[in-house]
Amino acid sequence: MAMCGKKFAYSSQLLSSASSRIFSFSWGFPFLVQKSFKSSGRRPKKKIYYREHDLDRVMELQKKPSLILQLKNIILNQKNRCILLRDLEKEVGIVEKWNFMSIIERYPLIFKVTGGSRRPYVLQLTDKALSIVEQQKDVMEMMEPIVVTNLRKLLMMSMDCRIPLAKLVLIQPELGLPKNFMEDLIPNYPDFFSVQEFKGHDYLQLESWDSSLAVTHRESNLFMDPMNGKRLHFTKDGNCSCPFSFRVKFPAGFRPNMRYLEEFHKWQKLAFPSPYLNARQFNPASPAARKRAVAVLHELLSLTVEKRLTSAQLDAFHAEYQLPCRLLLCLVRNHGIFYLTNKGIRSTVMLKEAYDGSCLIEKSPLVRFNDKFLSLAGRIEHSLNKKMPLTVEVV
Hints:
By secondary structure, the chain is of the alpha+beta class. Among the domains are: 136-211, Arc Repressor Mutant, subunit A (Orthogonal Bundle); 216-356, no CATH class. The chain is built from 16 helices and 15 strands. The protein is globular, with a radius of gyration of 24 Å.
């Protein structure tokens, strides 16, 4: 999807030939443009997708930290926790090698190179970096019950309570799973998981259903909302405390009119089946099933450590979760719930309610550990209470 400046245009089909109307889509509520011109030969108004600069900045700020963390893991995976500089190319390729060489030179508090004078150059972590790394084992122990629960929920949401192992590996870092989770984690929970072959592929199969886990992140937040049941009227921000409503954040430049808000409020009140019920029970063309698909996407993103996945990663799970055929259009239409950004290396889908400005609101132990390690690089964080950037002190 091509972007231009602050916003980009895309085309969609008009569903009515009325001279003046609301654009009502099959997903149950109007989209960004609310009225079209009367049929007088003039071009219809373009559909605008508004940028969220704070969320774009999240991805821009991740470029160098992601390289730092990747290089750290490469070093720690070596037998002696060090690697010859000449072997770095074998790990990352000749093109990426130079990006990492720049990182090594730029952050001497994290990486150091020893050798020379007829000795090979060796890359390793500094003593300060190693002192933080020593805490990683405790962090992974804290993460284990979290990732096991999230993995069970992922399997419970899937069509047949199983997911191909290759697809889990695709989102392994985003779920917070250890690198060798199939050897180090799965065998420890035979009551929850098993590995089975199906049509020539290995699948992770759910062994036991736990009804207490069949509660979505959306529902949990709704139960904790002190205004639950007291804000049934619709507001200009689109939020209400209906049992089937989503928390939305419209873009700053988006100004919905009253007719739009009325239609949107009807969609917010529309009942839909739980994402943990099997999708085969429902007609995918029904409004309730389409709203359920939005809830499935919401829950998938909620189960990741940073509440985001790339578009390609989401697209890989079409069959397992019966995602919309036109997934990209579904995400764009629900612009108050999800945000699509092309910043960074890949197009990324973010859960808007999980961020306050550019800061992730709920941080898992793994995210807090990574932040602490990256503080050696002087990474900029954002305070939740202030808009001014807060520089993390170097430990």
